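Model the whole thing, not chain by chain.
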Amino acid sequence: MQAYELQHTTGSSSWSLVEKPQPQPGPGQALVRIHAVSLNYRDLIITRGTYPGLKLPLIPCSDGAGQVVAVGPGVTRVKPGDRVAPTFFQVWTDGERTPERVAHALGGSIPGVLSEYVCLDAEGLALLPDWLSYEEGATLPCAAVTAWNALVPQGGLKAGQTVLAQGTGGVSIFTLQFARLLGARVIITSSQDDKLQRAKQLGADGLINYCQTPDWEQAVLTLTGGQGVDHVLEVGGAGTLPRSVAATKAGGHIALIGLLTGAPGKPDTRATSSKHLRVISTYVGSREMFEDMLKAMSREKTRPVIDRVFPFAQAREALRHMESGGHFGKIVITV
Ligand SMILES: NC(=O)c1ccc[n+]([C@@H]2O[C@H](COP(=O)([O-])OP(=O)(O)OC[C@H]3O[C@@H](n4cnc5c(N)ncnc54)[C@H](OP(=O)(O)O)[C@@H]3O)[C@@H](O)[C@H]2O)c1
């Protein structure tokens, strides 16, 4: 079978196409024929060698979707023919996040899914509803579950509240879609006006160009009558967090998710405690959260926003497209 391997960490050209023996499912495992894979910003930073816990060579990418073709001894949860997507953390099925449950993640400390066939833990699979294509299903395990976890189990989002989404990448477009699905108002930022117009078509209420308006927290306050938003899904990190704190309502919630500005954000506890903010780090989520999210998406058939689909042979071009920052939503590779 064919797979990509990360053999060195010299940036977005580090993936090599290799021939490997097809794996056989062991006890408790399912063999999945992968049909589509989606990219996350994490896959890009992993190629730069700054991600902890990597053992090379590594099959990259956490997010895929495919069909079960065989199961190992003792597996009853899934059967050949089932359409599935893996969970980012193969052993976090439900309950609270613990260090053990998040110790190993696909495409990081354990091999990922950019491969024709993968053996996965049968407990680490979510069943995909029929109305989602493999390309759409492949967008969900990391970015969508992260947005869902931050908004719902962690954030306790209520209809009528206001959510701030930063930029128009994978996590933020799912944030916009899920917040709208649950009856919330969304303010979204972007570096590009045409992307803001696309976000408006998806239901965004407030649009801010963070390049033209560098003090965008003031614009958020103006759009919320001086109050600030109830929830911020913080994907920027150190470069955006102080502005996010200023843009959040007293008693509001900030989900610490990303580091797009180069470093993770460290909250200034004086500022966050004087406003009684809940500042909580989000780390993707459990299989139960994935399944709850699929049920909510099924109500209105919420379709993931796919920016572009690349063939398997052009996987490196797909990664370079992500690096360019030109995308809106998710980038997918067919396998
Ligand atoms: N903690 C977790 O569990 C978790 C899970 C998933 C992702 N993450 C992290 O979350 C971040 C986003 O991941 P992703 O996969 O959604 O990335 P992505 O799809 O590559 O999104 C990148 C987009 O973010 C926007 N952006 C860049 N710099 C920005 C800034 N200074 N302010 C506001 N927006 C900015 C840009 O949107 P415009 O082009 O519209 O400007 C850019 O296109 C990454 O840091 C990733 O590592 C963390």
